[in-house]
Amino acid sequence: MFVNVPLALVFAWLVSFFYRPAFGACVIVGYWLTNVLGFVLMHKGAEKVLSEKDKAYSRRDLLRDVCISLLYTALIVTLLKLKILQPIEYYFKTL
Q1: Closest among 45, 43, 74 to 61, alpha carbons compared
Q2: pTM score above 0.70
Q3: pLDDT of residue 58
Q4: Could you tell me the residue ranges of all domains in the chain?
Q5: What is the dihedral of CA 40, 84, 82, 7, to 10 degrees?
Q6: Residue 41: how many CA atoms within 13 Å on its side-chain side?
Q7: Per-residue model confidence as pLDDT tens digits over 11-26
């Protein structure tokens, strides 16, 4: 969460610089790209460290990672709806 959300925000800020309405969708897409890839890489790395045999990344492992990602995605959608996560120019507006 502390790595993936900032990466997703940077991705969304870059895209919304060119097309502002895409901000919310880009946060979600960026988060999914970093989160699912991160889960797969962590899983594979932990298996290499903890076992002597290489075990295939199973469908069950993928399903678990996708379910966890869905829960975090719901949190991100909530943060977007509450306007806690916004395009970068909104953070620097003067009142």
Answers
A1: 43
A2: no
A3: 84
A4: 4-91
A5: -20
A6: 6
A7: 999 999 999 999 999 9
